[in-house]
Fold this sequence. Notes:
Layout: H1 2-17, H2 52-58, H3 69-76, H4 87-90, H5 95-113, H6 130-151, H7 154-173, H8 188-192, H9 195-219, H10 224-248, H11 252-284, H12 303-314
Amino acid sequence: MNHSHLEHEKDATNRDDAFNPTFSSLQNVSEDSARPNFLESTPYRLHGDIPSDEALRKIRTANSVSISPELFEKIYLSPQHAVKGDLRSKFGNPTPLALLGFLLSLSPLSCEMMGWRASAGGADAGIATVGTYYFIGGLLMTLGGILEFFLGNTFSFVVFCSFGGFWFTLGSTLTPGFNAFSTYDGDNIGGLQSPGFHAAFGFFLLFMGLLSLIYLICALRTNLVFVAIFLGLFMTFVLLASSYWHHAIGHHDLGGKLQVASGAFGFMAVIAGWWIFFAQMLASVDFPFQLPVGDISHVIKGGSTRLAEREQFSA
Length: 315
């Protein structure tokens, strides 16, 4: 009886030991520091008689995987921060989806404003691609922003939802059924060229420029590509607002030149946007090489980081 009891305890001990990684010493080691790292430590030894559910319970790979702050900012377009829960490990990254909506809307619009390939330009710029503002720019950016909200990425959430609203607004403004410009003139197209419409819509563009300036300052905590995007957007909205106001007072030649310049800065923004979108897609499939985005998060340190450094220095 005693012999059988000792054999039972010995078998139980062997089964428990089968899950213990090999450390040189386990004395004075905290629970966190003793947690295995599958990239560096000896792998677990799984015996054939161990139930699969128990093995999965004991092996927690999520705690051994981490990404660098630069990669986090490249993927989510926001500085890395602590968020409760593990939604990021369960769901896909919505950032490329929202970014794609932005690119597929602004890219053709920028070309139209510059008058490439004999496109309309002038007050008619953007009418041919009004559908993309609804179903690509507005829809994808708003959807991506909402998903960023659930992942805890406040900056990306606000940026994407605000620009999603911008594309919905632009699309509805250029749609005759909303009567945004037809009220200024009985002829629909004539309303787009009326001084009153140009003067009024210029204010909306001006404050979109102000919003882009705020985003530009916040982007100084991320990377150079993101800074280039918001710098291009800031100049785009400011120049386009100026173009509308010059058209309103009859300076159509200068207004046309300002619109071309606005389209050029918009094109600069989308070139940077295509670059970071490509970088995100490469990272999403773990491609052998990655595109640099110019991480500058270390240049302007976060407030919490500065506070921790002061407390450490004072201690």
